[in-house]
């Protein structure tokens, strides 16, 4: 298998992401944000950006810094940039959230925090995109899953630029007819490029590699893979066309949106069918917990896409909110949590035991975790996600808050499992005396099998 280095900052990205997820779920459980408040209320925007930037984007960037080199067979270009990117994103997110609270009259904070925070975020995402694109371009040839990542990175740049423009509009720095049109039609495009383009396409690319690796299944290179990729490319091109029309005319383009939706639906259908093919052709007979949990995450993608189509057809705001909730916390968040369960153990094994292979008996990656203990918390998380989405559709704020509190409990217990893996707490007795790694940052950059 491809030799690769452990990305020193990947676990720091994951740690920041989990803190943002816990914060967002806690706020929702306390009744802050939607559905207790409107979709465009400042505190709803705080929760939304904690999830999309703090949780999902940091999670995805951390994963890409570790696994993109494995995907393309090259080491990460400019490996000293990850801490700079992390600092830019965290400081930008903090200022952005303060700016949203300033719109709500919080301690007379200046609304200009919105623009400054957006600029720092844009800078951080641009540096990340340049580093990851350079890694892609350094490869002799690119497998098709890397194409999904490239499309996702392009979407990230557009989403970040749109976000900074919207922040300037909310701060009152941009006015006129364009600002009105941008608020009316640009928010949806911002969400589509971010949630649908950047996060979903990157998740597709990474999951192709990880699912194949963890299932010990042949990589998919057939018609369905190409259909998923080219349909996603057409959908992204359609979104870009809609954005260009908005900039040129201050109006939306209904036909372009409809074509984009059809192409996106085809891409999702082909991707899910392709992933099902990976499960059917796997060489590992027994599904480990994280791969069984990934099935639930994939099911959430199908459910969220169906709810989104229904919402757009009927114009129902509660169904639209439920669809976004399922896609963000069920599909992307759920898949992220189940993959973290394996990735944290995998990186810990690479750091602690891979250097000793061939010189001593070493434990398996699976020996670093206890599936029996963790399984109920994944069940709790996904069950609470379904309950929360149902509560949004039927307008039950109390049920939603209870479901979110249960979801938060599930996440906290899963974080405890990640920490146990990192502290080697579940290792068999024969290895209990092995030196424990640092919780977040590896001590050194070691070359290991990845």
UniProtKB/TrEMBL annotation:
InterPro entries for this protein: Cyt_c_oxase-like_su1_sf
Residue ranges crossing the lipid bilayer per the database entry: 12-34, 46-72, 84-103, 115-136, 148-175, 195-216, 228-249, 255-279, 291-313, 319-350, 374-394, 400-419
Range of residues in the leader sequence: none
Keywords of this entry: Membrane, Transmembrane, Transmembrane helix
Keyword Chaperone: no
Protein name: Uncharacterized protein
Organism whose genome encodes this protein: Devosia ureilytica
């Amino acid at each position: 298998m491809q030799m690769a280095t452990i990305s020193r900052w990947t676990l720091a990205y994951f740690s920041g992401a989990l803190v943002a997820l816990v914060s967002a779920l806690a706020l929702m459980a306390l009744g802050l944000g939607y559905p207790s408040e409107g979709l465009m209320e400042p505190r709803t925007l705080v929760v939304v950006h904690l999830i999309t930037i703090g949780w999902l984007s940091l999670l995805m960037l951390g994963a890409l810094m570790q696994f993109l080199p494995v995907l393309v067979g090259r080491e990460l270009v400019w490996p000293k940039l990850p801490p700079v990117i992390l600092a830019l994103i965290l400081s930008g997110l903090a200022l952005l959230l303060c700016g949203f609270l300033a719109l709500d009259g919080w301690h007379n904070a200046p609304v200009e925090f919105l623009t400054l925070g957006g600029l720092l975020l844009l800078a951080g995402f641009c540096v990340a995109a340049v580093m990851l694109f350079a890694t892609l371009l350094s490869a002799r040839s690119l497998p098709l899953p890397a194409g999904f990542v490239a499309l996702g990175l392009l979407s990230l740049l557009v989403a970040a630029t749109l976000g900074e423009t919207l922040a300037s509009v909310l701060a009152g720095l941009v006015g006129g007819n364009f600002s009105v049109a941008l608020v009316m039609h640009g928010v949806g495009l911002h969400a589509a490029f971010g949630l649908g383009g950047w996060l979903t396409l990157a998740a597709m690319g990474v999951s192709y590699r990880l699912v194949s690796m963890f299932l010990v299944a042949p990589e998919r290179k057939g018609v369905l893979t190409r259909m998923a990729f080219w349909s996603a490319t057409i959908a992204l091109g359609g979104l870009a066309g809609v954005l260009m029309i908005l900039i040129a005319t201050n109006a939306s383009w209904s036909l372009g949106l409809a074509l984009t939706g059809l192409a996106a639906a085809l891409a999702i259908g082909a991707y899910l069918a392709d992933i099902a093919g990976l499960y059917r052709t796997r060489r590992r007979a027994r599904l480990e917990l994280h791969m069984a949990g990934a099935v639930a995450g994939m099911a959430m993608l199908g459910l969220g896409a169906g709810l989104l189509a229904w919402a757009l057809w009927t114009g129902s705001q509660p169904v639209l909110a439920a669809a976004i909730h399922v896609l963000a916390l069920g599909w992307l968040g759920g898949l992220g949590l189940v993959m973290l369960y394996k990735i944290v153990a995998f990186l810990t094994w690479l750091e602690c035991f891979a250097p000793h292979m061939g010189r001593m008996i070493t434990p398996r990656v699976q020996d670093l975790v206890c599936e029996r203990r963790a399984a109920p918390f994944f069940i709790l998380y996904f069950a609470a996600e379904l309950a929360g989405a149902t509560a949004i559709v039927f307008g039950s704020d109390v049920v939603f808050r209870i479901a979110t509190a249960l979801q938060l409990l599930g996440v906290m217990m899963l974080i405890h499992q990640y920490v146990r893996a990192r502290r080697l707490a579940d290792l068999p007795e024969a290895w209990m005396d092995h030196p424990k790694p640092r919780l977040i940052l590896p001590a050194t950059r070691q070359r290991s099998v990845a």
